[in-house]
Amino acid sequence: MRYIQKHITLVCLAALLLCVLLAASVAGTKAVAGRRYQPAEPTDVPVLNYHKVDNIDHSLVLTPAEFEEQMSYLAENGYHAITPDQLMGYLKYGRSLPDKPVLITFDDGYADNYVNAYPILKKYGFTATIFLITDFIGADERFLTWDQVREMQKNGFVFGSHTVNHQPLTKLSPEDASAELTESAREIERQLGAKPRYFAYPTGAYNLKVEELVRQAGYRAAFTIRYGQVGIESDPYAIERIPLYHSRKTFRSFYCRLTAASLLERLSIFKN
Fold first, then answer.
1. Is 28 exposed, middle or buried (0-12, 13-18, 19+ CB in 10 A)?
2. Is 111 part of any domain?
3. What is the helix, strand, coil percentage profile of the chain, to 5?
4. Which residue of 48, 113, 169, 252 lies most exposed, with the fewest beta carbons within 10 A?
5. CATH no. for residue 124?
6. Closest by alpha carbon to 79, among 96, 50, 103, 106?
7. What is the pLDDT of residues 200-233, one digit of tens each?
């Protein structure tokens, strides 16, 4: 494993060198130099973004073996899973976090999150946050049931909203977007006994108007699919995540995205 990780690290460093050269070629332009970037804080937090864990050949689907390889790596290398409340406590109030914090998230609420991912997460002592499309929960066999959700909640998992029907909020009227936000929250509260505090944008689509609607709906923070780690300068209603995909080299991609995120942000390559 050490040899494999060393090889992967060399590949990542080579990719980073290419990124540095590309960044340097435009560093003198106002478009790049117009915004000041500060060094990432030592406690910047990676927020991992998954969807499905199943034996299906699709870019958004990790196999159980791939997912376990990633969770095993996190456990063996001293990462500690945190909750969104812990993350926001750090961002807003400077509360301490465990060493090497990581927030594990899933979008949509697929049934395989319970069948395949849940046992693996428990094996390594991790919890996760799952953003639910409420009209699909308990109504579509591809998705979780409310009983499964309640069981996972009792074991430390957090559930947030991913709207009622997974419609991109930027394409809806303010009234319809607001309804997606409030009705999904109302259903989660009815089923779980507490109003959800966190939201994830369907398809990652958001803008300042949508952010304001999310705030008005009572959510404490919202998560994007924009690549990056979360630091003290992050917008609570545009939280960065590290999207993870299946590929020919799934673990190498995971390792590079996880371990290179801080350096890439310092070079201003993925930050908008």
1. exposed
2. yes
3. 45, 15, 40
4. 252
5. 3.20.20.370
6. 103
7. 999 999 999 999 999 999 999 999 999 999 999 9
